Amino acid sequence: MVEFLHLIKHRLTTLVVFTTGMGYLIALRGGMDWFRFLSVIVGVFLVVGAANAMNQVLEAEADGKMKRTMQRPIPSGKMSRTKATFIATVMLILGLAILYKFVNLLSTLLSFLAFVIYVFAYTPLKRITPLCTFVGAIPGAIPPVIGWVAASGKIEVGALILFGIQFLWQFPHFWSIALICKADYERAGFKVLPSENDRVTAINLVIYTFMLLPMSLMPALAGFAGKYAFIVSSLGGILFFVQSIMLLKDVSVKSAKKIMLAAEVYLPLILILLLIDRV
């Protein structure tokens, strides 16, 4: 069981499932269909777990070179690539089947699209170009849209706004991690930072946290969140932006860790606020 949880990157998978569920609840109008809600949660959990497992299958050699990943099931020898591929395939098929049967076709297609981009575009591009982060942010921002579509049956303005928030959020979150683990990523041959110069990376990080601020205000401006969400989103966005400025000043691992922690608090906080103060 421990190997399975590590194979599907259970912490990342849990976050993705959480954002999917929040997308569903924020979009929900009318009575709660618990069976449909649980179906989208289980379906997305399986598809995301499959994507993370396939990512580890394809990156097994690179994972073996990195301190933070060398104990994962495949590089550590606790699980074969064949077994991991089988698990991923079964999870993918089951997840898509559940979404198609019990949710809707659009949620199924979006889930499959996210899987394909993550596994067959983002994963190989990590060795080729820093643009991989931009590509990877696309499937990373689709989950709340899946949740929204599961509840409403269509892609609406609210779904696109949630996509934008989660899309922009991923850059400061991932780049802060990449700065902390820069030596590891270089050892594995991954080109995930926008520049080899840490200060240039910090400048890019500041730009994305700045863009995230107006995007996080869009739910209130679009009319599906209230004034409390607007106020707290403003304060949270400003604090997040200020933290990125601190990183730009000293370009230190300590500041990068603060950005990472701030990002991990910021996204759940914004989504919970949008749910509580939805209009």
From TrEMBL:
This enzyme's EC code(s): 2.5.1.141
One GO CC annotation: plasma membrane
Catalytic activity: heme b + (2E,6E)-farnesyl diphosphate + H2O = Fe(II)-heme o + diphosphate
Pathway of action: Porphyrin-containing compound metabolism; heme O biosynthesis; heme O from protoheme: step 1/1
TM ranges: 12-28, 34-58, 79-99, 131-151, 157-181, 202-222, 228-247, 259-276
Location of this chain's protein in the cell: Cell membrane; Membrane
Pfam family, one: UbiA
Gene Ontology molecular function: protoheme IX farnesyltransferase activity
EC primary class: transferase
Recorded topology in the membrane: Multi-pass membrane protein
A Gene Ontology BP annotation from the UniProt entry: heme A biosynthetic process
Keyword terms of this UniProt record: Cell membrane, Heme biosynthesis, Membrane, Transferase, Transmembrane, Transmembrane helix
Function noted in UniProt: Converts heme B (protoheme IX) to heme O by substitution of the vinyl group on carbon 2 of heme B porphyrin ring with a hydroxyethyl farnesyl side group.
Further remark: Carbon 2 of the heme B porphyrin ring is defined according to the Fischer nomenclature.
Protein name: Protoheme IX farnesyltransferase
